[in-house]
Design brief:
Elements (H helix, E strand, L loop, with lengths): L2 H12 L3 H14 L4 H13 L3 H14 L4 H13 L3 H14 L3 H14 L2 H13 L5 H13 L3 H8 L5 H14 L3 H9 L9 H14 L2 H11 L4 H9 L6 H8 L9 H13 L6 H16 L7 H13 L15 E5 L6 H9 L4 E3 L5 H6 L12 H5 L9 H15 L8 E4 L8 H7 L4 E6 L2 H9 L13 H22 L3 E5 H6 L1 H12 L22 H4 L19 H4 L19 H6 L3
Parallel strand pairs: 1-3, 1-4, 2-3, 4-5
Helix pairs in contact: 1-2, 2-3, 3-4, 4-5, 5-6, 6-7, 7-8, 8-9, 9-10, 9-11, 10-11, 11-12, 11-13, 13-14, 14-15, 15-17, 17-18, 19-26, 23-24, 25-26
């Protein structure tokens, strides 16, 4: 191939003239079909245009000619990453790094792990990237998010000190303290953010969430006003988030032509917020808009929860693989609060968190960030339920359980080392209850139950993460809830009175009586401030944050009143489901006696 032509193509590449580069590379490939550099150039052009499958083919051709080309291995990993094939992407990034220790490639592998929820692995590679010289505020903020998701708050604070932009630094640190439920420290960080500083939209969103989690309505509304100066989507959301809109204003908003130009998630968020304006005045209009919000969020595809249902079966099926193991652990510090979302977990934790001997850690990700590391094989599927249960597909031995037990308790120290008890109220920890009960034999387990119709309707009205897509469709929600009921019956059979059940309805109608069995189990005395939720200073990072700051109230007991016909699928849940007893040993002795053979 003519050197002059090749140099011209390289010049196009360096100048970003990709259309000319692509045309020239294609022309030369007609003459030199086995030239690896030409295939590299073509692959770059296709990748930049978003044609990842075509770019993949070009780069695979390069590797057939030069198998040890580390740069092409990394590029092929990027093609797979953008096609959401994380298993293959990670493999190619790892191959590239085995040949050359490139910090940017560590960043790519870190991103692959981050998207899979493998936060500890992601943090390791982001750290390699930073130590290798890829130090920019965007990467540092991502590293902070990664470490917070792994409940590694002290490490996150260390990296935050490297951020050069003052606004990003203080917002990042405030977010860490909010996640760690240290609101006073978060507020000290926010004082340093000067009002005249121009904040980019991504930082404004972070700041909005921080003020919201802290219950600072005044500053939250100020941020909402700033959104009105942003993009069309931000303006639209800012308008619908205004309090006390009139019926005419709501009608005008619903007919806003800008909605047609929004992506599905923005439009769904708009309809969820719009629906909330009707909840207390027009129940049927409220439900109609919720149905529209959920349809918009789920897209044109029919909701399919067959994978979720198989996950429930796998949890019960896998229990026998570790049911004979018990970690050596004396600590009684962990208090797990779990149940379906919107079942009252936040209310119970808020009451217990007011006790002087208890620290409320909120929806800690510590359990999942540790468990996912006990299966080192890369998950081939990225379904969120399968990812959470990936550890069950690996051999489960006592040394692994002991390691989890020690690491979990060590991780709790990041929250409050001096607390007698620390609550962990990640609702879906009910999926891991078997493992947790054996790994932490002295932990407390509190199961929250609520009227199933009220629970499911409350899930249906929330703009939740993709993990909860089962909640976008009422029949699917019913199926999912029944599987949850059966799993809890399974655990109840296995662990008996180790599980303390608290009903939401009892908690709001007679709170002192409802919480007393929990206090007695923990050996805690009643304190008069336990029910003073309005004045509690703590960060609440769940969808219950607005309700919990109102204190205990009873008007949420039957939110479905007047919608009985429309919600007929949910009312089928009023019938108690039965557990498949064939999957459980007929032995009726308690968990403690079966494990330790005590009378």
């Amino acid at each position: 191939m003519n050197d002059t032509v090749l140099e011209q193509l390289k010049l196009y590449f360096s100048q970003g003239r990709l259309s000319e580069l692509e045309a020239g590379a294609r022309e030369q490939l007609e003459l030199h079909p086995e030239h690896p550099v030409l295939h590299k150039m073509l692959g770059v052009c296709l990748f930049q245009r978003g044609e990842f499958a075509e770019a993949q083919s070009a780069i695979e051709k390069v590797l057939s000619l030069e198998p040890d080309d580390a740069n092409s291995l990394n590029n092929l990993g990027s093609c797979y990453l953008f096609q959401n094939q994380h298993h293959k992407a990670a493999g190619y990034f790892q191959q590239a790094l085995a040949i050359e220790n490139n910090p940017q490639w560590h960043r790519n592998l870190g991103t692959c792990y981050f998207e899979l929820g493998l936060f500890n692995r992601a943090a390791t590679h982001y750290q390699h990237a930073i130590e290798g010289g890829v130090v920019d505020d965007m990467l540092l903020m991502r590293q902070i998010d990664t470490l917070v998701n792994a409940s590694r708050f002290k490490d996150a604070l260390i990296f935050s000190e490297q951020i050069t932009d003052e606004a990003h630094k203080w917002v990042g640190q405030a977010a860490i303290y909010v996640a760690a439920n240290q609101p006073q420290q978060a507020k000290k960080c926010l004082v340093n953010i000067q009002p005249e500083i121009h904040l980019v939209p991504s930082l404004l969103q972070r700041l909005h969430d921080i003020y919201r989690f802290l219950g600072d309505l005044e500053n939250e509304h100020k941020i909402v006003e700033l959104f009105s100066q942003g993009s069309q989507a931000e303006q639209l959301l800012s308008n619908v988030m205004q309090p006390q809109l009139s019926a005419q204003q709501l009608t005008v908003l619903e007919q806003d032509p800008r909605l047609l130009q929004c992506n599905s998630q923005t439009a769904a968020t708009f309809y969820f917020i719009l629906a909330s304006h009707y909840k207390d005045t027009d129940k049927k209009r409220w439900l109609g808009l919720l149905e529209k919000a959920n349809r918009t969020q789920s897209g044109s595809l029919k909701i399919d929860i067959s994978i979720e249902l198989e996950c429930f079966a796998n949890i019960k099926r896998s229990y026998s693989n570790y049911s004979g193991l018990v970690a050596h652990q004396k600590s009684s510090k962990p208090v797990f609060i779990f149940g379906m979302p919107r079942s009252g977990t936040t209310l119970i934790e808020s009451i217990l968190g007011n006790h002087s001997d208890t620290f409320a850690a909120g929806e800690s990700t510590l359990v999942e960030s540790l468990l996912v590391e006990y299966n080192l094989a890369m998950p081939e599927k990225v379904h969120p339920h399968q990812l959470r249960l990936h550890y069950l597909d690996a051999p489960l031995a006592l040394d692994k359980m002991q390691k989890f037990s020690n690491e979990y308790l060590s991780g709790l120290e990041d929250y409050c080392p001096d607390a007698r008890y620390i609550t962990d109220k990640m609702p879906h920890n009910f999926m891991h209850l078997g493992w947790l009960a054996h790994a932490l034999p002295n932990a407390t387990f509190i199961h929250c139950e609520r009227d199933p119709v009220a629970t499911c309707l409350s899930i249906f009205e929330q703009n939740l993460s993709p993990f909860h897509r089962y909640g976008n469709d009422l029949p699917s929600l019913v199926s999912y809830y029944r599987q949850y009921q059966d799993l809890m019956a399974f655990w109840q059979h296995a662990f008996g009175d180790r599980i303390i059940t608290v009903r939401y309805e009892d908690l709001v109608t007679k709170p002192k009586q409802a919480i007393q069995p929990v206090l007695s189990h923990l050996g805690l005395e009643w304190q008069e401030n336990l029910l003073d939720l309005q004045n509690t200073e703590r960060s609440v990072t769940t969808s219950s944050l607005q309700q919990i700051r109102k204190g205990i109230y009873q008007h949420a007991l039957t939110p479905y009143a007047g919608l009985e016909d429309e919600l007929a699928p949910l009312f089928a849940l009023k019938t108690t489901s039965l557990i498949d007893t064939d999957s459980i040993s007929s032995e009726k002795t308690s968990w403690f006696r079966r494990i330790f053979a005590r009378e």
